[in-house]
Amino acid sequence: MSVQVSIIVPCYKQAHFLKDSLQSVLDQNYTEWECIIVNDGSPDNTESIAQKWCAIDSRFKYLKKENGGLSSARNAGIGISKGEYILPLDADDLLHEDYLTLLVPELQQNPSLAIVSCYSNFFIENISNIIHKQKPIGTTYHALLYENNMMATSLYRKKCWEEVGGYDENMKQGFEDWEFWIAITKKGWEYKFVETFLFYYRKSKQSMLIETLNNHVESNMEYVFKKHSEIYIKQFDTTMEYLFYLIKKHHTSENKIKKSLEYKIAKIIAKPYRIVQRLMIKK
Q1: Confidence at residue 255, expressed as pLDDT on a 0 to 100 scale
Q2: Exposed/middle/buried for 91, CB within 10 Å: 0-12, 13-18, 19+?
Q3: How far, in Å, CA of 200 to CA of 205, rounded?
Q4: What number of other Cβ atoms are within 10 A of residue 243's Cβ?
Q5: Which of 35-49, 142-156, 267-281 has the lowest average pLDDT?
Q6: 258, pLDDT greater than 60
Q7: Which residues form the Glycosyltransferase 2-like domain (predicted)?
Q8: CB-CB contact of 35 with 60 (8 Å)
Q9: DSSP string of 182-236?
Q10: What are the Cα distances from residue 204, in Å, to 71, 127, 199, 201, 209?
Q11: Please, are residues 118 and 49 in contact by the beta-carbon 8 Å criterion?
């Protein structure tokens, strides 16, 4: 059987979710796939779980490497892949059984498409507990400039990965998929969303995305804006509007905090300490 799709599953400290993710791969009604499990130097039992799945079905492959981050792990897996199409899948997320059946033909039938994605369900603990449904829109890079509305788990042509030199391994704090989509689509490639819920994104209290949103949004945006400055300069007025919107939003949030009862109480409690601090400085 020929391999049309290479599913790349990086795993780092996610061994406890890996079984469910790989089961969703095995359950695919479309069969012409290989699944490369990339152990990104994970300190847990990723290796033993991966090897069990390789024994269950020969379409599962295992690659072990030193820890290098998500971009590095994806690139390593894609580097040994055989498929014409690539599907990244994080070790804690799940695919609907018809994911490949419905998405692969979109790329086969439309040579102008680089990427095809779908609607997504966000869940907690199990897929019966859906907390959010995402219905993204867009076909060109213009819809991706200021916000990534396409999931990292989207099907794309391997030659697009080759054209842009893979995922940017300098981006170790998230948003690497956003930058990757921009790099591809700014070359003129288009993408499409199949209007069916075929992907399940696990929402957890601690994840790489939560860490990124809490601590690295601004630095990641700056990196992407600078790396692809030519397209942001083309959209100069819109880019300025967006940046000033963010500034205004920040100030509004800051003023709201200062007017809150909690802030006023904390300010009163802290006042004696500030007085003592000033006296100590004068001495």
Answers
A1: 61
A2: buried
A3: 16
A4: 14
A5: 267-281
A6: no
A7: 6-126
A8: yes
A9: HHHHTTT-EEEEEEEEEEEEEP-SS-HHHHHHHHTHHHHHHHHHHHTHHHHHHTH
A10: 21, 13, 16, 10, 9
A11: no
Does residue 88 contact residue 158 with C-beta atoms inside 8 Å?
no
- Cα 198 from chain centroid (whole Å): 16
Structure tokens at 38: 């990339």
The count of residues in the chain is 283
| 68, 70, 126, 242 from 171: Cα distances, Å | 11, 9, 30, 23
Instruction: Using alpha carbons, select from 69, 65, 68, 16 the residue that is nearest to residue 37.
Output: 65
CB 63 within 8 A of CB 9: no
The span from the CA of 1 to the CA of 81, in Å, is 15
Averaged confidence pLDDT in the chain: 89
What's the token pair of residue 72? 């590095």
Cβ 140 vs Cβ 235: under 8 Å: no
Q: What burial class does residue 118 get, using C-beta atoms within 10 Å of its C-beta: 0-12 exposed, 13-18 middle, 19+ buried?
A: buried
* pLDDT tier for residue 263 given thresholds of 50, 70 and 90: very low
Q: Tens digit of pLDDT for each residue in 214-248?
A: 667 888 999 999 999 999 999 888 888 887 777 77
> Rounded to whole angstroms, how far apart are CA atoms 40 and 73?
6
Read off the tokens for 128.
């019966």
Concatenating the DSSP letter of every residue in 131-145 gives EEEE----SSGGGGS
Report the percentage of the chain scoring pLDDT > 70. 84
Asked if residue 172 has pLDDT above 60, the reply is yes
Between the CA of residue 104 and those of 5, 67, 167, 237, what are the distances in Å?
8, 31, 22, 38
Question: What sign does the CA torsion over 78, 81, 85, 90 have?
Answer: negative
